[in-house]
Amino acid sequence: MFIGEFRHNLDEKGRLAIPAKFRNKLAEGCVVTRGVDNCLEIYPSDIWQKKASKLASLPISQKDARAYVRLTLSGAMQLDLDKQGRVTLPDYLRRYGKINKKSVVVGLYDHLEVWEENEWDKFRSNTEKQSADIVENLKDLGI
Q: d(Cα 97, Cα 103) in Å, to the nearest integer?
């Protein structure tokens, strides 16, 4: 399970150190792709296979489904951790996420998100201010 928030710097080669507590879950490989809100998503390979299968089953006749599938699958890249527990984020994904140096790795149960530090801080701050309204809106989902 991935939970928590960790701040890391990318090195000059675009390598991101995966928090030590998550490395064993990604040791068999992982996939990075575009996420929502200009973050990146990193999935363990087995979880990615399930997600990709669900995406592939979405109806291509629906515009939004087609667009989401295209962005997510076309942006996906297989990654392996190096001996220091780092992954190299592809240039096109770093540009998408506006990630140049400082980043935040966020654990979201079955996957990680990688955010540019300032973007994460803005998102988190705005969401914290709206937390009561958000919870109220989610009550019908059993939250």
A: 10
Claim: this prediction has a pTM higher than 0.85: yes
pLDDT at 143: 67
Where would I find the beta strands (DSSP E) of the chain? Answer: 2-9, 15-17, 30-34, 40-44, 77-79, 86-88, 102-109, 112-116
Cα distances (angstroms) measured from residue 142 to each of 8, 135, 136: 34, 10, 10
Give just the sign of the alpha carbon dihedral 39, 44, 45, 48: negative
> In the chain, where are the structural domains located?
2-117
CATH architecture of 2-117: 3-Layer(aba) Sandwich (3.40)
- Element at 117 (helix H, strand E): helix 117-129
